[in-house]
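Example 3.2
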Amino acid sequence: MNLYISQKSSNIVPDSQQQNAICYNSAMSNIAYIDGQNLFMGTTKSANPWKVDLSRFRIYLRDLYQVDRAYYYLGYVQNGETYQ
């Protein structure tokens, strides 16, 4: 799964309670770019397939990573071609 989070501000403060974690400043906002095809294939074609509830995923991104905007990109398949 490809999930890219872009930070609008470089004001990042290390979290003293968890090692290697990042505590985001409340003034900072993030943008997520989500590869929909990769997310779909990674979750439905795995050993234990599952489906992503996109509305809950959006809330997760907002709460955990302070994502203000999320862009979900899908590719277009012509003439019913299958993904290989």
